[in-house]
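Q: Second attempt. The first request was missing the SMILES, so the protein and zinc ion are both included now.
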Amino acid sequence: MANETKRDYYEVLGVSKTASEGDLKKAYRRLAKENHPDLNPGDKAAEARFKEINEAYEVLSDAEKRSKYDQFGHAGVDPNFGAGGGFGGFDMGDIFSSFFGGGFSGFGGEPRASRTGPRKGADVRVAETITLEEAAFGCKKDISVSHLESCSSCKGSGSAEGTTAEVCPNCHGSGTVRVQQRTMFGSMSTTGTCPNCRGEGKIIHQPCKSCGGAGAVRKQKKITVNIPAGIDEGQAISLRGQGDVGKNGGVPGDLIVGINIRPHAELQRKGNTIYLERTISFVQAALGDEMEIPTLDGKVKYTIPEGTQTGTTFRLREKGVPNLNGRGRGDQLVTVKIATPQKLTEEQKEALRHFGEAMGELPLTTPPAAEPEAESGGSKGFFDKKRKKK
Ligand SMILES: [Zn+2]
Ligand SMILES: [Zn+2]
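A: Got both inputs this time. The predicted holo structure:
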C-alpha cells in the first residue's frame, strides 16, 4: 500500500513540528520551486517530490488539518488512508497556483488540462468482513457496489438524443491552450486548460436528461467475489475493470475489496499459524487425557500425555491457515495451562491429603483445615511443598 511508506509531512517540508505558518510558507516556496515539473521536465523523481511537497503543505497550512495530522498522522487527514489509496483528493495545481499565480501546468510533464483523451475510470473501494474460517479456506461473497456506469440514454456522450456536442472553437477540441506567461522564473510558455470548454474539448448544448451531461450515472450492482484461501486481514482483492466507467473511451477503473477478518472466539491467527490456549485440570495433566480441540477444520481429538507441565505447547501439524499460494498450510499451536483446584470440599481435600501422603509429602506445615490463602500470598500450598522437595 502506498500509504504505508508515506513520509512524515514535516519531514517532507524539512521543518520542525512547531514550525510557524511563515516557516511552512518559506519551506514550501523553496521546495516547490526546486522540484516543479516545468523546471525539471521528464524528471519523475522531482515530480513525485513535487506532489509530496504539495500534499504536505496542503495539510500543514490548514490549521484544522494540521491538528488532525498531529493527532492521528496520515490517517487523520487522508480519507483513503488504510484503504490503499494514493494521493486522495489533493489538487496540486491549485495549491501551486495560489502561491505563484496560474499558468503552470501543475505537474506531470504532460499538461494537466489534457482531459480530452481516453481516461481510466476511478477505482472503487469497498470493505468486506469475513470469518476466520472463510479467510482460511476461501469463500464466495456477493457484494453490492455503487459505481459509475456509462449512461445508456446517451451512450456516454452526455448529449441529448439526436444532438451532438460541438467541438470547442477555442481549442479546436484539444482542451488545452498555450499561454505566454511572465513568471518569477522569467517568461515561460505553458499549457493551460481551455477556459471555454474547461478542458473537455467539446461543448454540450443540450445535455442528456438522464445523466445531466456527465455521460455516466451512478448505479448499484451485485458482484460475486472469489476470496482466495489464506487471505489475511488488511489484504485486498482487485477486480480489474469493475470500478467506474472510463471517459472518452478509457478503460474502467478497478474494484478493490479490502478484507477485514472478524475475531474468532477461541482461535488466534498470526500469519498462517493458529494459536489456542487451553486450561486443563491438574488431574488431566498428571494422568493424561483425550481432549477435544477446536481447529479451523472443526473439533479434533488430541491426547495429551501423562505428566504434562503447565505452559507446554503442542503442535498440530497442518491445522493452521492454508498458504495463499495454494500449497501447504501452517500449524496450530496449543498451549496448555493447568488450573489449580479451588473451593475444594472437605472430602476432596482429604483425598488430596491422602495423595500427598502417598507422595511422601505429609505432614503439611499448614493446618489442613485452614482457609485457602489469597493467590499470591499463599506459599505453603501443596505445589510449593512439592517444589521445595526437588
Ligand atoms: Zn476548449
Ligand atoms: Zn446520458
